[in-house]
């Protein structure tokens, strides 16, 4: 390690962000123990036979990873970004054929001594590759060719993860849209995305026919408005506007019918049930809506200040499935109440604001784009994980960053974050070709 690397490790690394990381990891570890705690069993938080002890081993491994990342030359991550991406895609492809099925998803690779989920690490490699592509001095997101290449780069891991029946992991890649927007993606495309999402939700919530009628009324009003105000435009302009809105109406109707077909003919029953629980909270609460129902009970039972650490009855008696992983926020809600939940959410918000600040201060485009990728991925996980525990999002099974139990999750987020911190420690320098 060169002398300048030593200086970077001690002075230039952002200790505030590291402080957030350590805090989240420790709080997560304590809450994982709260989930598995049994007052009648003679076990401690360090017992390797329970999840808290296993998580401690993952934490130890994470700190070895951190040291390794900070020691390696920062140029290494840019130089080998495409190599990482290709290897990651090959591993995802291998997982489709050789993966171990868990909860209906064939997304795990059993290596004998450890079981890993390649989709978690694909987020990191995709972030590197996207930063390398868009960070080039010849890259411009306004050009259709550049945008097409970026979308293709994102579509490949999405397709491979979807083939593993891992819908939640695939949806995480939608977070990269925020990165594209920061780099110049027109806001109009984002509005189209919001409109499409709204149509999707409304179609599932109230059905196809009411949506078609509503669209017809909406577009009729818009066209009537242009006709009334036609004196402000030429006949050709008026005709063009009307044709555009008629085209949008036709595409919207086609999309609505497509959503209905995909939802009822392509999605599997358990995937449909997870979505429909959002629109009918009483949908078979002993089966399809059980996770969400028990989650709400656990969080609601915490009241304002909670029942106290290790005092959660819903947690203690295993009422909430997957509580150490996907539903770890329930433990916070029950044992620390509204007050503790609010503090945790505030900490995550401050953490993500810090990441955006770090991304914006980069002189190098590669580092900035990668930093925004990190912030966007963590934001998506944070919003969806907490949202699905209180019924705002479907139960798609994604972890709370640094908090949920699991080695693949902790290690992938650790790599994602600390590669950015390594790049940030050299923020005054610009990589060649960027």
What's this entry about, in short?
By secondary structure, the protein is an all-alpha fold. The protein contains 18 helices and three strands.
Q: What can you see in these coordinates?
A:
This protein has 434 residues and is mostly helical. The chain folds into 2 domains: 3-186 and 277-424, no CATH class; 207-267. The chain is 68% helix and 3% strand. The chain contains 18 helices and 3 strands. It has helices at 3-12, 15-36, 51-71, 75-79, 81-98, 118-134, 144-163, 167-171, 176-182, 187-206, 208-228, 235-265, 269-276, 290-300, 313-316, 328-360, 365-389, 407-424, and strands at 100-102, 105-110, 115-116. A 3-stranded antiparallel beta sheet has the order 1-2-3, covered by helices on one side. A hairpin with a 2-residue loop joins strand 1 and strand 2 (105-110). The longest helix has 33 residues, at 328-360.
Strand order of the largest sheet: 1-2-3
Count of spatially separate domains: 2
The computed structural class is mainly alpha
Number of beta-strand segments: 3
Low-confidence sequence ranges: 1-8
Spell the H/E element sequence. Answer: HHHHHEEEHHHHHHHHHHHHH
Output the number of helix runs: 18
Average pLDDT metric: 83
Provide the helix percentage: 55-70%
Determine the N-to-C terminus distance: 25 Å
The largest β sheet comes out as: 3 strands, antiparallel
């Amino acid at each position: 390690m060169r002398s300048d690397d030593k200086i970077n490790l001690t002075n230039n690394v952002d200790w505030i962000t590291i402080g957030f990381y350590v805090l989240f990891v420790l709080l997560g570890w304590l809450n994982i123990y709260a989930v598995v705690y049994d007052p009648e069993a003679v076990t401690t938080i360090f017992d390797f036979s329970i999840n808290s002890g296993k998580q401690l081993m993952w934490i130890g491994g994470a700190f070895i990873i951190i040291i390794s990342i900070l020691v390696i030359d920062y140029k290494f991550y840019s130089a080998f970004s495409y190599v990482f991406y290709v290897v990651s895609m090959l591993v995802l492809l291998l997982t489709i054929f050789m993966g171990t099925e868990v909860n209906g998803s064939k997304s795990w690779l059993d290596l004998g001594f450890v079981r890993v989920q390649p989709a978690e690490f694909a987020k990191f490699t995709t972030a590197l590759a996207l930063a390398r592509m868009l960070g080039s001095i010849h890259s411009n997101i306004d050009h259709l060719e550049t945008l097409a290449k970026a979308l293709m780069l994102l579509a490949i891991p999405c397709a491979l993860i979807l083939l593993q029946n891992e819908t939640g992991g695939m949806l995480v890649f939608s977070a990269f849209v925020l990165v594209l927007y920061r780099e110049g993606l027109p806001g109009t495309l984002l509005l189209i995305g919001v409109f499409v999402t709204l149509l999707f939700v409304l179609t599932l919530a109230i059905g196809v026919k009411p949506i078609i009628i509503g669209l017809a009324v909406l577009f009729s009003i818009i066209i009537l408005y242009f006709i009334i105000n036609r004196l402000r435009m030429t006949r050709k302009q008026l005709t063009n506007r009307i044709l555009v809105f008629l085209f949008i109406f036709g595409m919207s109707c086609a999309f609505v019918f497509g959503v209905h077909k995909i939802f009822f003919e392509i999605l599997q029953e358990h995937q449909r049930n997870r979505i429909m629980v959002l629109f009918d909270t009483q949908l078979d609460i002993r089966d399809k809506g059980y996770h969400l129902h028990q989650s709400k009970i656990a969080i609601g039972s915490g009241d304002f200040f909670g029942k106290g650490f290790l005092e959660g009855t819903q947690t203690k008696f295993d009422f909430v499935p997957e509580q150490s992983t996907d539903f770890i926020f329930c433990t916070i809600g029950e044992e620390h109440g509204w007050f503790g939940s609010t503090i945790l959410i505030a900490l995550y918000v401050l953490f993500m604001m810090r990441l955006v600040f770090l991304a914006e201060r980069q002189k190098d485009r590669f580092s900035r784009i990668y930093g925004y990728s990190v912030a966007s991925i963590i934001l998506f996980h944070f919003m969806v994980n907490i949202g699905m525990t209180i019924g705002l999002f479907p139960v798609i099974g994604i972890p709370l960053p640094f908090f949920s139990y699991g080695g693949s999750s902790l290690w992938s987020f650790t790599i994602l974050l600390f590669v950015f911190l390594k790049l940030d420690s050299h923020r005054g320098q610009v990589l060649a070709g960027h």
